[in-house]
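#dry-run=false #mode=assembly
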Amino acid sequence: MMRRTAQRRRRWAGRRHGHTGLSLTSLMDILTCLLFFVLKSFVAGGETTVPPPGLQLPKSTAERPMVTSLVIAIDRDGILVGNERVASMSETRAGEDLLIEPLAVRLKAARDQMNDIARLKGTASPSKPRIVTIQGDGDIEFRVLQKVMYTLNQSGFSDIALAVIKKA
Amino acid sequence: MAARAGKRRSFRQIVNCDLELRPLMNVFIVLIPMLLMSAVFMEIRVIEMSLPHSAESAAQPATPAPFDVAIRIRGDVYVVEGGGVAFEVIPRQLTAGAGATPVEASATRIQHALAAIAAAHPDQKEVRIVAEARTRYAEIVALMDLARAAGLPQAALDGARTEAA
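#status=ok
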């Protein structure tokens, strides 16, 4: 009789303990709020880009959104086309010539590729001027920017968009 | 005995009607870090510029603008010019703090000078920024902002010696 009572007590105690799980409701509330906040912070539509690490874009009151284009980043170490580094900063600064030869070669390849795509699609004329977005670090010198712009112009890219961070 | 069995059944029914939140939690825990990693919290905008087409500029002689508005960055001053004549000379504070540009201290004066020129010449939309070789890019962007605010939205860049744009 005593043994049976003890067994029953153990069984009931086990049942009670088996259902004391974590209360996840409050955590779910936090996660739901966080999810909505993150979704809201996403840029809906338009082109988005992330500058290379270490590159600090200047702040501006400009309002025009970014467009899909070839991106040239100028950081403190040199020039990048897409993710490929084409010239170092010392190489760019050196010499009085405004044309940056490695950049011009890379731009010519990019332009040929764009023209081929346009021809295959039949969407645009190959001679149409193409937009290039320059992501320049706020600390770069004007002579570097001047050389990049001159090289762009000589390579057939006459429309330029200077990427900036929108001032709050 | 039958009554006791009935009680047990009802107890089990009450206990088992909890919402199963763990699968949803697992989804959230994966989804939130993924969204946070791919989220863009800073808004990127662009300032559009057009360079003269290299083929066209080589073939045609450059025609002078009817009225040339320029901001010259010259040592420790900004010279705001209208029609080739110095309109106002504004001091340039070269010892600006970290992250600040020398323009900030003189922003109001530069903007007023440009706005006065823009008001006198309503058809004028262009401004030339003549920078020195070592001028920081952030300072040029700040000057473009001031010109845009003053009613001169089209900025062209010019080197102190050689022309770039």
